[in-house]
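To: structure desk
From: M.T.
Subject: fold request, one chain
Message: Could you run this one when you get a chance? Sequence is below, nothing fancy, just the single chain.
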Amino acid sequence: MFAELQAIQSAASSLKTAGDIVNALISLGVKAEARAKVIELQAVIIAAQSSAMSAQASQMELLQRVSELEGELMKLENWEAEKQRYGLIRDSGGCMIYSLKQSFVEGGEEAHALCPNCYEANNKSYLQPSPDGARTAGQYCPKCKASFRVWGAARSGTGLAR
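Reply: Done. Structure tokens follow.
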């Protein structure tokens, strides 16, 4: 793509040089007929320069969009790899949540769970104890504000991984 951009820049530069030559011919004082043709040629060169600059701007926009799409693709690929570390489980309160797989917990990572709503939207949001956790024995998602009722050992976060 950069070669195409360089080709457009080269064409624009060549057209500018041709325009400079036309301006030099006009200043030489050639006959009226020749001067009219030179002016006509100059108009064609200006139109070609404008088209080359427009093509260059379009090329830059396309390069930027390709870069954005590559970034989005990388983010999705990274998320797909991250998703493999979690499994969908039913917690002790009966809620379906995504929990870090046991093999990672045994490998030394802290057991934790992710919000299923955010997970499905390709976001990683750790479930947190509800602010009024003592009363409701629940967890909530700080990102989407969903709440989950949890009972027993899963409430502390230690019984989530499977």
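Reply (cont.): The radius of gyration is 32 Å. Let me know if you need anything else for the meeting.
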